[in-house]
Predict the structure.
Amino acid sequence: MKLLVINPNISTDVTALIDTEARRSAGTVTELIVRTAGHGVEYIETRFESLIAAGAVAEIIAEYCAAPVEGDDPAADRIDGVVVAAFGDPGMPALKELADVPVIGITEAALCAAALQGQRFSIIAISDRITAWYRDCVEHFGLGSRLASIRSINQSLKGIGTVQQDFKETLLALSRQAVAEDGADVVILAGAPLAGLARELEGQIPVPVVDGISAGIRMAEAVVALQSGFHRQGAFAPPPVKRRQGLSENLDAALAAIQSAASATGTPAVVSAGK
């Protein structure tokens, strides 16, 4: 199994944290390709920054899902699944329309893992600014009634790659408060900058603790193994064929490939008027 793991932020030190936790979590037969966004921001806190990141993630997915150039080996870079490794899942669920393989966000994976282990969960975030967007994400997945709280660091970050070291005791205290004061049955340590922290805090928080990166990898492996097929119709079917302009070569080819794959299965692509 080959998974493409994408850091939607431009921070390579966060990518290193993602890479380490992803490899500790993945099965022994899973191959990981870990990539960093080619453009965007240091770390995502707002809906607009998420919008920017979504385009960067789409470009990376397109590299691996585009139709192969004549003469290339179509299986050489073939991926079986994608993990979008930033809490808030930038670009999701729209990115599911771009590929014929499962595209899993670490938010949806973490929320599913938390929902399986308790009735109410709390999210521990790296900044106050980010909480409104995270609350939107929980509501989007229909789990608002099960959200006990979102607690966050309310101090300026010294560096996005050192959040764990700089605020370990704060994050531990916030997690314990979520259990004692908010009634959380499960704690989610949100965001790639906290990747691996759940392992370090093992036994120090009295409820199950979910790491988004670990959940994303394991959920992606499980969904790929189900071999359920991809969306040919319905809400996540490929975008209809229509005139396009100004797209990158990879993105244009990826759209053409997914539209062709859908039509080849007996589901004709919808062609817009005027094409």
